[in-house]
Amino acid sequence: MPFEWVLALRFLREGRMQTLLIMAGTTVGVAVIIFITALVSGLQVSLATRTLSTQAHVSVRAPDDHAEPALERGKTVVAAHLEPREQRLRSIDQWERVYRELPEVPHVVELSPLTTGSGFAFRGNASKSIALMGVIPERYDRIVKLADRLVAGAYRIGPGEALIGTELAKDLGAGVGDRIRILSSENRDDVFRVTGVFDLGVKDLNRRWVVMPLRSAQSLLDLAGGVTNIDLTVDDIFAAEEVAQRIQARTGLAAESWMAINAQLLTAFKNQNMTTRTVRAFLVLIVALGIASVLVVSVVQKQREIGILRAMGASPRRIMRVFLIQGGIVGGTGAVLGSGLAALMVYAASMALLQEDGSPLIEGGIEWSYYLVASATAVITGLLAAVAPARRAARMDPVEAIRYG
Amino acid sequence: MAESPILRLEDVRKSYNLGTPIQAEVLHGIDLTLATGEFAALIGPSGSGKSTLLHIIGLLERPTSGRILIAGEEISALDEAGMTVLRGRTLGFVFQFHHLLPEFTALENVMMPTLIDIGRYTRGMRERARWLLGKVGLGDAVDKRPTALSGGMQQRVAIARALAMNPPLVLADEPTGNLDSHTADEIFALMREFNREEGTAFLIVTHDPRLAVRCDRRVELMDGQIRLERSA
Ligand SMILES: Nc1ncnc2c1ncn2[C@@H]1O[C@H](COP(=O)(O)OP(=O)(O)OP(=O)(O)O)[C@@H](O)[C@H]1O
Ligand SMILES: [Mg+2]
User: Fold this and answer.
1) Is A141 helix (H, G, I), strand (E, B) or coil?
2) What is the pLDDT of residue A364?
3) Were both Cys, which of A20, A191, A196, B69 would link to A153 (CB 3.0–4.6 Å)?
4) What is the pLDDT of residues B84-141, one digit of tens each?
């Protein structure tokens, strides 16, 4: 073992209480940093996942009609006041081409074409305003897991069949096997047999959604062969907004991510992230100050020894390394022990924090990136904290240490 | 042709606080030559500059002016790193307060100068350290920490350590200063033994006239100047 390591290890070992305390402090610091990171991001993923169980990660549709200035003379805009035009029901131009092209966009996983519009549902005397959701069942199932949300019936949407939400079922007094009449905004109507009732956990969707075959919706909405939306999922949910923007730039269509739709939730996430960053920064600072103060005390205590080491031929540079190594060892030990402690804490939290349905709120597994980043931070913090004490040790005048030490 | 001296000082001066109102010259032009294998005492009243001179010879501080040659090497030509290496390989130190490293055993303390020079432990340095500790009568105490040893024993370890690199010159600043006279005699005898057997030159600062007279040569310092030199 090199001279510098022999000394660093021995000084730490003989520092006993000081060394133990500062290593414990560093360990706790590393563990807490990993734990809060895992906890907060776990909670966010779990919240986002819950939100996304009823919506696509990105939804692509025809671009909005833009009202354009009617007249322009020279540089003077005559019709300065623009009224947003009423949006017509529009299908996506050459949607099959777009549909084939979308999987080339990075992160895109699943696609499902959709024809949606508004209308009314009737049964007996009851009539309710609804949203028509024309889907290809096998495809749509990969975007929103309706099959898991059924409270009655089966996930079966053949021709002339439809799924409705619990609220609508109640409003219409309809159950599985009953028939309902749907009248679209285009004044076309058709009769559907209810094959299943779902509960999406969102009242508004349970009240309005009528999920039917794509073809039925196309004919009711007078969009033969056309689709109004392509819903898709991505492999990294927090990349959804980036994906949406890429699709928009590439296809000229409008693409909206779940992040844009749930802007409030995203703002809350951002604030949470800032809070955890602040807490992490303070933890790093406290650990750094702890390591630095222990090493400064050690340098002062060892003045005489440093002087005699210099007299025996140790250069200032090597004396400096002895103390830098000590900082690095403290940081490294804290990283290893802290990672272990954090893994236990995350596991315990995954067992203790449960959602209403009994599933864990956060994952108990190890997200290596947190551990690597926190460990690297600990080692670097240890080294940086040791810089000032190490320089002080290196600058120490051996004569003074020998004369007055 | 005669062998070149191990140490040669020419008109060495040392001032502290140069360029300030409290500037003071502590050494006023020292000329001194020490032959290879010589055993010399440096004596003189308190404050006469003995320690200062020893530190300058030990390359722990630079003189304000003058020439210093150690083992024929002119030190003003050396930078800090060169002085560090020369110090480690050519000079051994023994101080009044032993300055052993309390975290290390007697054996590890004796190996330290060689560890610094080579950079890592080797079998050879372990064997030499054991042999040296045996020579100073501490063959049974190799694994003891300095705190478990008496003052005399600690000073024996310090002497063994000073000789670890087999340096041609050992500088000792009051090595028996805080020992009783019986132990002081033993420590002195030990240094004398190494001087005879290994040909190591010693320059020993001492206040003890009994020991000084037993050296080959006595250099007396008075107010920063060499006042008398007497050979036995
Ligand atoms: N760093 C310094 N700055 C100013 N003056 C100093 C410094 N070091 C030593 N001196 C002065 O130099 C003079 C010589 O000191 P030195 O320690 O060399 O004497 P000494 O002969 O070893 O004395 P003693 O026998 O008491 O050990 C003293 O007057 C001391 O005060
Ligand atoms: Mg002195």
Assistant:
1) coil
2) 73
3) A196
4) 999 999 999 998 876 899 999 999 999 999 999 999 999 999 999 999 999 999 999 9
Q: What is the CATH number of the domain that holds B181?
A: 3.40.50.300
Counting ligands in written order, which one lies closest to the CA of residue B45?
1
Backbone angle region of A373, left / alpha / beta, with phi > 0 → left and psi within -120 to 50 → alpha: alpha
**Which residues from chain B sit within 8 angstroms of residue A10, using beta carbons?**
103-104
Domain count, chain B: 1
End-to-end Cα spacing for chain B = 24
Nearest ligand 1 atom to alpha carbon B224: 14
Phi/psi of residue A15, each to 5°?
A: -75, -5
Q: Would residue B223 be called left, alpha or beta, if left means φ above 0 and alpha means ψ between -120 and 50 degrees?
A: left
Sequence-distant (≥ 6) Cβ neighbours of residue A17 within 8 angstroms: none
Helix (H, G, I), strand (E, B) or coil at A403: helix
Total-model pTM = 0.81
Taking the C-alpha atoms of residue A160 and residue A212, their distance in angstroms, rounded to an integer, is: 8
Bridge partners for B202 per DSSP: B39, B170
| pLDDT tens per residue, range B197-230 | 999 999 999 999 999 999 999 999 999 898 877 7
Assess if residue B30 is contained within a domain. no
Question: Where are chain A's structural domains?
Answer: 3-51+265-404, 95-252
Q: Is B109 on the interface with A (CB under 8 A)?
A: no
A276-to-A34, A282, A290, A345 alpha-carbon distances in Å: 10, 10, 21, 17
Q: Which amino acid is at A67?
A: A
- Determine the residue of B27, B48, B227 to mutate for testing ligand 1's pocket, defined as the one with the most ligand atoms within 8 A of the Cβ atom: B48
Quote ipTM for the complex.
0.90
Secondary structure (H, E, C), B82-136: HHHHHHHHHEEEEECCCCCCCCCCHHHHHHHHHHHHHCECCHHHHHHHHHHHHHC
Helix (H) / strand (E) element for B205: namely strand B201-205
The residue range of the domain holding B145 is 37-62+77-231
